Amino acid sequence: MKQLFAILLFSFVSLLSTAQINPLFIEQTAKQADSLKMLARQTTNDTVNNAFYAVNEKLKPGIEQFKPVVSVKTENQNDGIKITVKDNGNGIPERLLDKIFQPFFTTKPTGQGTGLGLSLAYDIVKSHGGEIKVESKEGKGTDFIIQLPITPISHKQ
Length: 157
Fold this sequence. Notes:
It contains 3 helices and 4 strands. By secondary structure, it is an alpha+beta fold. The protein has a single domain, classed as Histidine kinase-like ATPase, C-terminal domain (Heat Shock Protein 90, 2-Layer Sandwich), CATH 3.30.565.10. Strands 1-2-4-3 form a 4-stranded antiparallel β-sheet. A hairpin with a 2-residue loop joins β1 and β2.
């Protein structure tokens, strides 16, 4: 499972590093682009980690026919980028959805989670004017949607 995670994360980082920039944002400075890549890497690391944990937990009971899937999709949008991390694990119970971004909240057993990953990702995304949302169905899986803005530089004349 760790090798699969490393391959996925490497592929994702490579995708971000080589992604074609929407022509509307050609004027972005290298510093802004590097900052956006670093921000995307930091915030997706915890969501991808949680996705792998979720599918691994669903595998444990030996559910016949279950094939674990974790996917990462990136999209250029007119005003930024959208990153979706999706898994087909057990999902998050509805009663817990409003707590998952709180510091030190974890559903993992003692010693397996600090409860800081999603909280830090949330704070990082918000501090950069972005948004992180979660959509989950218990027993079906979870989607984390991270939207990060890109602010075009205006020409001074």
